[in-house]
Input
Amino acid sequence: MEQKDKGLALSRRAFLKTGGAACAMFLVAGSLPQLARPAFAAQKEESINEVLRRQFGGRQVSPSHVNIKAPIIAENGAVVPITIVSDLPMRSDDYVKKINVYAEGNAEPYVAGIDLTPANGKAEFALRIKMRKTSNVRVVLETSRGKLYGAARSVKVTIGGCGG
Amino acid sequence: MPAVGRIKIRVPHSIARGQVIPVEVLVTHPMETGLRKGKDGKVIPAYFINNVDIYYGSDRITHCDWTIAVSANPFMTFYVKAEKAAPIKIVYKDNKGGVYEQAVQINPS
Output
């Protein structure tokens, strides 16, 4: 009886040991792609924060003057109509130079960049975009004076729109 | 399959001088992402419009960089301050070298 108990205890110890080793291996294996990531970053998915950091560095984006009109629920992620409206001026000395549009859940979050000029009369643009899954649509405006304004709006997607 | 690169432009009927008018443009294009697989299991190569230029008269007033995340048959609305009688011309370029363009004359009164 005593022998049996010992055997059981030993086997449990052995089990925990091997199990622990397996867990450790999983952890190592899990962290490997992270380490290898920079090598093939172009093909790998880039998060929205990485994209924003690459495009704007650490510049301050003020959360005002931008309004995104988008459906709360998009039944088809392949066609999500969005309208970007800003009340910022479009004077020749101060105008919205660029509208950047991002879909945060997409493999490639950057959707479109639109360069405007004062001849547009107002800072408004509408486009239909694809969204893979429920996520935020983010917009960052850049003015000719170098200021950044941004906004984000959540869109619920019931059928993804990036293939598959 | 409809012809790739067919463009439809809509502008308001009557335009006052100095008015900011909406211009709606639709272009027929598959906007293939390069992420989808066809029935044979092979990846369908990416085929999409990545460059849009909008001219009012001789001035380029708007330029767009698009990625695969713009929907098939792209539809967009932009605005123009109608200050002169001149054509608005839209030029699309895709990643396979296709160029599609069309113009519409506006005559503000």
Summary: The mean pLDDT of chain B is 93. Chain B touches chain A through 30 residues (CB under 8 Å).
